[in-house]
Amino acid sequence: MPDSPVQRHYRADDPEWHWLEERDTPEVTTFLTAANAESDRWFAPLAPLSDALYHGHLARRELAVSSLAEALDHYVYWSETAADADYPVWWRHAIGADPADTRQHECLLDLQSLSRHHDFVELGEMAISPDEQQLAWTLDTSGDEVFSLRLATLNATNGDSRNAGHDDECLLEDIGPDLVWAEDGQHLLFTRYDSTQRPFEIWCLNVESRAETLLYREEDSEFWVGMGKTRSRAWLILETASKDTSETWLLKAVAPLGEMRLVRARETGVEYGVDHRPGHFYVLHNRQAPHFQLDIASEHAPGDWQPLIATRDEVTLEGVEAFSWGLMVDERDHRQAQAWLRVIEFEGTAPTQTICRDERLAMPEQPLSQGLGDCPHFDARRLRIREESFTTPPSWIELDLDTGERRLLKRQTVHGDLAPEQLISRRLWATSDDGEQVPVSVVMRRDLCDDAGHPHAPLPVLLYGYGAYGETLDPWFSIARLELLTRGVAFAVAHVRGGGDRGEPWYLAGKLEHKENSFNDFLAARDALVEQGVGAADRIAAYGASAGGLLVGASLNKRPEAFCAAVLDVPFVDVLRTMENPELPLTTAEYTEWGNPHENEARRRIRAYSPLDNLSAAPYPPLFLQGSWHDTRVPYWEPAKLYARLRRMDCTLHPVLLRTDMSSGHGGASGRFKAWRDNARQDAFLLWALGVCEKADGNEAMRDDD
């Protein structure tokens, strides 16, 4: 093995490489810089391919984009991103003004201009005051998810000016991203962190006097705070929650410094959320209802819950949105791993609760992601619905509740030689080691398959998974993915336990003492791709990010020969050491997800699967590890230590590469062009490893069988 950062920086006094956690020492930055240089040298022969992927992506995408316009009470709002810009600009014009008359356009926030002063720019929240005369926003300029609060007084301007006439000032530093205006127009709610970057306090700022008032402090280190406002604009919602327990307080939105009302005191293992229609609160909870149920409570007695939609064995209730006419409910079928929207209308006005309409929204295809879009008006009867699938780009539909008419408002434009109709997706079912059936979604080129979606010959496959926190991997369309698909690669998603794809039971069956199910499911998905003729056994690569990096890392330790390559992006791989350190961000809040290692049984379980603690001398496939210097969720040292240990073990002839982005956080680059460049580099590695494209100093070389 040639001279490497690992060889040059190995310290016999710390064979576990924990010294990489010493962020402020020059030795650490030297190590990471050297690893980046080593990675750059390895990627140099793939530069033509990476460039082709990048420019191919740009050619497929509509670079100049505008959002849908959204009317509030006085103004219409939208954003625009120029073809050569990384970031959007937000605009508005008065309701009734001619949208084509740019003299009537007022620039609210020009993020592209702000980005010229920072290597990283991430907008946390934009919040318009109730009278629409003030704009508040939070901004992160390092990637560490610590935000500043800025406030602008809005004044209508003429012409294409940027924030002309705005009184823009920084009011606060070191706060959380979330903002909520009280309905009095004078008070703004925000959050603050504790020493572990846990949002633990909710504050109220008087924007005129600058006086700050503490509304709520959470002392339990496993709980995080957040806040919101009901669509009815009547109540401010203050929430505190761990991974499996929650508690909600209410404040009248016109009197944010008034008396706080507790909905119901926390009960261990009980999660609940609250929405409002005049006279009533609607409570979605899992108290004696493992798949959640919807209850109703009087506005005068929010803790007295009465059943409205009972819990069901085959369906999980995932969310509820209240309107003046009724409710929009999110539900998920456990058997088919498919979610849908359900419209419930009530007859008459509150307190009457007679249901006069109860129906699911139509779905043009399945599987499909269908969700409620921006609908800020409580009385709205024309709703915006967002839909997309693995083969259909995101579409925004206006649904008229009175006529049932669906009107297409916008669909993401796709250019190039691979149109959405030239793709096909199908659902496989993999049998895990305990007999459980695991859904696996696959998308590929239609011309490579028969009409039922069976490939004419096994394909190279990229298998993706996550499997934590109950997160769902509902179908999503990706323009960047087209660069892989056009080259004959199939993209597959393993909907493993630990995610929420088959409802709440699916999540519970992949956490804590059941975590091993996630890894077994992922490997079963890989095997099903081979057994059912979709994937070539020696041409399946794995990809996982964050907790998905744990999924892939643990799966590699169990069966390193199962994959021809893997990409681990900001991977959570030092699970035991991280969970043993309560001073790190996220640790204490994660006890109910992974377990508390200070308890012997939980420590044993975590130790048994933590990727860094279970490396072996088996030959690992090519690995590309990616970290971010400012990442507070998965510190840069986790992928760095995995890289160092694997290289030091010298158990493989394949490349193990590490690239650390020294100017970004957990989500990677904030600018879209840099993010697309990073994605192209990653895909070049995958195409090389899958045997689709070769490393060469010249032009991209395609394999004959593709």
From TrEMBL:
Positions in coiled-coil regions: none
PROSITE patterns listed in its UniProt record: PRO_ENDOPEP_SER
The keyword Transferase appears for this protein: no
Keywords associated with the record: Hydrolase, Protease, Serine protease
Signal peptide annotation: none
Ranges for domain Peptidase S9A N-terminal: 16-411
Cited Pfam families: Peptidase_S9, Peptidase_S9_N
Gene3D superfamilies: alpha/beta hydrolase, Prolyl oligopeptidase, N-terminal domain
Listed PANTHER family: PROLYL ENDOPEPTIDASE-LIKE, PROTEASE FAMILY S9A OLIGOPEPTIDASE
Protein name (database record): Prolyl oligopeptidase family serine peptidase
Source organism: Cobetia amphilecti
